[in-house]
Design brief:
Layout: H1 3-6, E1 10-13, H2 17-29, E2 34-37, H3 40-49, E3 54-58, H4 66-75, E4 82-86, H5 91-99, E5 106-107, H6 112-153, H7 163-173
């Protein structure tokens, strides 16, 4: 994992204080910086301040549901990667949140402390790849734009031909009729 990835804020948004503490400690053991928030309002405010966060989102918070948090963020044109944390048997909620853009989901249960770091690291890695791809695309567009400016400023059309193309053309012109 790159140093840049470990600096991403991981927000644990869950109304269950004991569960969120367990997740916080688990992520801390893996060197991942995280914080706990218990209300949708606090989550929305924090994500608005730092949209490069990763959100571990419980289905219900103290003041709203996880779906409502995502809807409000979307309404503000804030896109944040999120992973819903659902209870066993709440697969319907997971499907709903996956349709809203969740990167994965986690089911509360045994082995959770082993699963959470793996899922979080995979999502963070994908998040970094998306950023790098966007940066590369931006560089490509800028270079293309500069190349177009250079070509537009040329006083005449210039053709660049490979030596093979020239030989083929010459041989076609000198063929006996």
């Amino acid at each position: 994992m790159t140093e840049k990835s470990t600096q991403t804020d991981i927000i644990i948004a869950e109304k269950d204080h004991d569960f969120s503490r367990l997740v916080l400690e688990t992520l801390k053991d893996y060197g991942l910086h995280s914080m706990r928030l218990f209300t949708g309002k606090d989550v929305i405010d924090r994500v608005a301040e730092n949209p490069d966060s990763l959100l571990l989102l419980g289905c219900s918070l103290q003041d709203m549901t996880g779906s409502q948090v995502i809807e409000i963020l979307s309404g503000k044109n804030i896109s944040v990667p999120f992973i819903p944390i659902i209870g066993p048997g709440d697969e319907k909620a997971a499907v709903e949140l996956m349709e809203m853009g969740a990167k994965n989901y986690i089911i509360k249960g045994t082995g959770l402390t082993d699963i959470i770091p793996l899922v979080v690291k995979n999502v963070l890695r994908g998040f970094e790849w998306e950023k790098e791809a966007a940066e590369a695309e931006d560089i490509l567009q800028k270079k293309s734009y500069l190349n177009q400016i250079i070509l537009d400023r040329m006083p005449c059309v210039t053709l660049l031909l490979e030596s093979y193309t020239i030989r083929v053309r010459l041989s076609l012109q000198t063929r006996p009729q």
